[in-house]
Write a structure and sequence with these properties.
The chain is about 5% helix and about 50% strand. The protein is mostly beta strands.
Length: about 200
């Protein structure tokens, strides 16, 4: 099936033909990861990831600029691959998981930048602070997921936040202030399998 010319249609779901489905796409947790990179003493970029990411993408192909992306991150699912460090970053100096079990992102605008790319801006909330953050997003693919039996869309995105802006100042600058985020996401929704 031929991609509709509109970028946003391509980015947010949209093979030509099917009418807009009211049901939003939902993140497939088993195929979605957020990876972060942060400087350690200036010698290396330490890598960690988030495994519990949920949310929805609600998009009408006829009005793609009005689409809404909502993401929730469970902060206790942040993993560094080091058990001792995992416990430390869940405490008060870092993510304070007991008081702030979630971080969220809710889109406010989509700016088209290319055939399959866009800037997605939204409100990112963490540790009780909300700041605007912009991600550079790119469509990977959209179509029919034969294994899930659902419509599917996948995208990649990158962005940067300063943790100090959210009140996480501990060990700056020895542990970097800037945190690079890389997102690989797959979403599904109920739909009708296209005819061959």
């Amino acid at each position: 099936m031929k991609y509709i010319v509109s970028f946003a249609l391509m980015l947010w779901a949209c093979m030509a033909g099917p009418a807009y489905a009211a049901a939003p796409y939902e993140f497939d947790k088993s195929h979605t990861k957020i990876v972060f990179f942060i400087s350690h003493l200036g010698y290396s970029n330490f890598i960690g990831w988030v495994t519990d990411v949920t949310g929805t993408l609600d998009i009408d192909p006829a009005k793609p600029a009005e689409g809404k992306l909502s993401v929730t991150i469970k902060t206790d699912s942040i993993d560094t691959g080091v058990a001792e460090l995992n416990e430390k970053i869940k405490k008060e100096h870092f993510f304070h998981v007991a008081q702030f079990p979630e971080a969220t992102f809710n889109s406010t605008s989509i700016e088209i930048t290319g055939d399959k790319t866009a800037k997605v801006t939204g409100d990112f909330a963490m540790l009780g602070v909300t700041k605007p953050v912009t991600f550079d997003a790119a469509l990977v693919s959209s179509g029919w997921n034969q294994y899930a039996g659902k419509e599917a869309i996948g995208f990649s995105a990158t962005g940067t936040i300063k943790r100090s802006e959210f009140g996480m100042n501990y060990l700056v600058p020895n542990v970097g202030d800037e945190v690079k985020l890389v997102i690989e996401a797959e979403l599904n929704r109920e739909g009708k399998k296209p005819a061959k």
